[in-house]
């Protein structure tokens, strides 16, 4: 419940979703160890793993969620759209189709959760299958020039939309003016779509950054609490030192004298050296009051953070999702004219290198 209440502050601000989750896949080694005969995906819901089959249907996903999450009576799976009018997938829809993009889960008709799908695989060239020759040509073209990944994504998306638009009007006779008109139409559509997507991504990044700050605040508050408690460790060290001083002074000048106390003080010094050396061996840090306190705090910090949820995994997931969304944000912030300029620069650079090589050979 701590994790749920921790992020309720973020979801109450202005968002139409409760949380953003990350879809995760088992590695080949993990699949082999678990003896998985088909691909199984999962996501963390309030620090609990929810599993489902990647090659199943929406109905199977809904059944898996109801079985694994308590108090869930209904599950809706929606396509993430540019506005609040989300499109719900039919129960018979194959998950392979749903997993082609991010999706939205609506639980009990009240709570919505965005599931980010391609966090580990940022958007790549993804042309529709109707144009295999163009797809192959683009891959060949990009392999010959050095351009950023976002440039490849924007250009491939533009060409996909352009070819789709041309396909709609294939009965027409094309000339230069008609092609230019279609290109302008596609650029306008892409511009409107990109603006809408940027707004969605901005909201998602804002929400995740709020989660990131709340996690940091939680860790800081626990550290301060532990530092107050672990002050007793320092007091124990102070008491041990004072007791050594009092004992050596009392033994030397009141009870036994220096002949007896000399080997005792030597052994006390050796004991202090052993304690300091042991601390350094364990922590590779100097034996100081500050380092002793920090070590005592760190020893209990992870345990405290793991009492309700896996803090480290949660923070790593949030960081990866922010990185993924910022890449998408960068893609939608680029227009086709900027992309063409980048490609022209890469071509000129390549031509200059080839010309220099030819001159060296001559």
Automatic annotation (TrEMBL):
Location in the cell: Mitochondrion inner membrane
Topology of the protein relative to the lipid bilayer: Multi-pass membrane protein
Domain Calcium uniporter protein C-terminal stretches: 151-307
Keyword Membrane set for record: yes
Pfam families, alphabetized: MCU
Highest taxon, organism lineage: Eukaryota
Keyword Transmembrane helix in annotation: yes
Key words, A-Z: Calcium, Calcium channel, Calcium transport, Ion channel, Ion transport, Membrane, Mitochondrion, Mitochondrion inner membrane, Transmembrane, Transmembrane helix, Transport
One biological process term in Gene Ontology: mitochondrial calcium ion homeostasis
A molecular-function term among this protein's GO annotations: calcium channel activity
Signal peptide: none
Protein family: Belongs to the MCU (TC 1.A.77) family.
Protein name: Calcium uniporter protein C-terminal domain-containing protein
Naturally occurring in which organism (per UniProt): Paramecium primaurelia
